[in-house]
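Practice problem 4.
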């Protein structure tokens, strides 16, 4: 389950002050208590991924390559599938050489030992002309709770870039896509959301949204 809420800076500060007493920060955050996520999204020549996202098509899938804190030490290929209001994410590690090939718009060689997810991406690059189209970058403060596999994340400084070939660069040219002081809270869980977390997040009063970082970044970067 994945629930999303647009929140102000004041709401973010209040909500975080509540949950940090009952949830733990993800161990992957650095000394600043957050990490920067950069994702490179793909779409085909008809922009099916964008329009499926815009129309709320179910099921729908989109591919992305993801790195953290601008580092190429770990590069993940991911496929995010949305169906009946739920989310499933599959992932596979890419080598630097594999990532560089894909970022340049080239499919991997099928003669190489590829994972099923890598083969799936390559098939779509060949058959649907799937190519990199936009970079989405933001800072994330992630809290976790073991029971129910709960994650509450606060995403700030959400930005977009069409300089896809610079994806692995330490810094990229980008533009913010959110109004000043507006951020995103995501609540993710598997089996259930513990009631004390639900109450602490005041979810009954916040307005749930179908907000998509990818969708908004595409909207502001597509050539018209």
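Answer key:
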């Amino acid at each position: 389950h994945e629930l999303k809420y647009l929140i102000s800076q004041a709401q973010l500060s209040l909500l975080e002050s509540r949950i940090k007493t009952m949830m733990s920060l993800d161990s992957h955050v650095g000394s600043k208590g957050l990490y920067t996520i950069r994702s490179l999204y793909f779409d085909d020549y008809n922009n099916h991924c964008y329009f499926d996202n815009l129309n709320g098509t179910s099921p729908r899938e989109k591919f992305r390559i993801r790195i953290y804190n601008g580092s190429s030490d770990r590069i993940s290929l991911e496929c995010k599938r949305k169906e009946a209001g739920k989310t499933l994410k599959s992932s596979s590690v890419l080598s630097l050489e594999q990532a560089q090939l894909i970022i340049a718009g080239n499919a991997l060689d099928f003669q190489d030992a590829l994972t099923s997810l890598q083969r799936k991406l390559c098939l779509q690059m060949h058959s649907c002309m799937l190519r990199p189209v936009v970079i989405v970058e933001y800072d994330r403060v992630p809290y976790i709770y073991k029971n129910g596999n709960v994650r509450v994340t606060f995403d700030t400084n959400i930005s977009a870039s069409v300089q896809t070939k610079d994806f692995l660069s330490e810094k990229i040219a980008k533009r913010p896509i959110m109004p000043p002081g507006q951020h995103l809270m995501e609540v993710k869980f598997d089996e259930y959301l513990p009631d004390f977390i639900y109450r602490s997040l005041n979810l009954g009063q916040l307005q749930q949204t179908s907000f998509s970082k990818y969708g908004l970044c595409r909207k502001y970067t597509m050539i018209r």
